Amino acid sequence: MAQDTGGEAAAGKWYDAAKATYTTLVDAKHAVSSAFQFVNVPTGVWIDERGKVVRPGEPAWTTSRTSEYGGKPLVTEGEEYIAALRDWVANGERSQYALSDEAFTARVKRRSDKEMEADASFALAVWFYQSNNMPSAKKYFEHAQALNPDDWNYHRQDWSFTPGEAGAKWMEKFQKLAEPYYPKLEMKPKEKPKG
Amino acid sequence: MKRRDFLFTISAATFAKATLNAQAGATILYDSRAVALARVDVDASGALWVQKKDLPRINGFEIKPQGACRADICIPIPRGMMRGDTFNLTAFAQRVGQKFIADPAARVWGFGEIPVMQGAYLDSRIAPDVEVPDRKGQPVRLSQFRGKKVLLVTWASW
Fold it and tell me: What is the predicted ipTM?
């Protein structure tokens, strides 16, 4: 699902190039990230036949690679993710990767007041952008980023409007990160200490 | 305060006074939908009053004797939150802990998530029934895929 305020005009050529055979959606409002609390791309969620979330949002790469940007590593863990996905497809709720209620609750937190206000601000920003009012859009994009600076979707979407500056802005923020850019996959819940 | 901010504050205050009790249209943003309303009232405090009949298409709630209700959730409503055929939408938001941002000059109000609705997802684990268009602009709802396993992945061109 393409998450792009530019809609089909921005995303369509990538779907064409991929010769996609799966359901292809164009989310110009970031509706899915808003609903599932995703903060970067690619992020995936697994949903079973009854509509129950089996695993909440986590990095959804298909390849494993370590790249370096300014000497700082950026790690993707696609092989582990795809192997776990295949196991779930084969075994359903018996899969060792289907999270228990306890593990689900530990991973999905209620949004803070600031995060909820940032979500409202981002919606306003997109509305103004789609109304061709870029000054107002900019104001609300920036407000959303200030309220929830950990949401890369907010930053990267806004930076996409000034592509000449986007790379430098990304690098500056990336270099300041204390945690990995993509959170380390935890495909299996952590075991409780014995005793 | 910067001069630009000061001027904005003055103009906003002037606008608020000028639109006191003004009845005109507005756009409400909630849950990735933009709902255009033909008539709303903005009172002296800046509160946004909408027609009760518009509430279901704004946020899925409707007024019942026991309060504002959506599915099996009912929020008791104080008497002062309703006036004739109108409903104080911003007071309701404050009552349920819902964040919102108003841009009165553009007559648009952006509302964030309703915490009790998010709580329902966290408790049930049932995926929010998001609606997103396909490449031809046709709406697709997540619930259309019941009976199948779904991997929903976001990506972007940026």
Answer: 0.95
CA dihedral B15, B18, B23, B28 (to 10 degrees): 10
Would strands B108-111 and B100-103 be described as parallel, antiparallel, or unpaired? antiparallel
Q: Which segment of A109-123, B12-26, B99-113 scores lowest on mean pLDDT?
A: B12-26
For residue B137, give the chain A residue with the closest CA: A26
Distance CA A126, CA A137 (A): 7
pLDDT at A176 over 70: yes
- Does the structure show a pLDDT above 90 at B41? yes
Which A positions 47-106 lie with beta carbon below 8 A of chain B? 47-53, 60, 85, 88-89, 92, 101, 104-105
Half-sphere exposure of B98 (CA within 13 A, CB side): 25
pLDDT digits (tens, 9 = 90+) for B53-97: 999 999 999 999 999 999 889 999 999 999 999 999 999 999 999
Cα separation of the two ends of chain B: 35
This prediction has a pTM of 0.90
Rounded Cα–Cα distance for residues A158 and A166 (Å): 9
- Of B108, B148, B155, which has the smallest distance from its Cβ to A127's Cβ? B108
Q: Exposed/middle/buried for A17, CB within 10 Å: 0-12, 13-18, 19+?
A: exposed
For A125-145, give one letter per residue: b (16+ CB within 10 A) or e: bbbbbeeeeeebbbbbbebbb
Domain positions in chain B: 3-122
Mean of the per-residue pLDDT values of chain B: 89
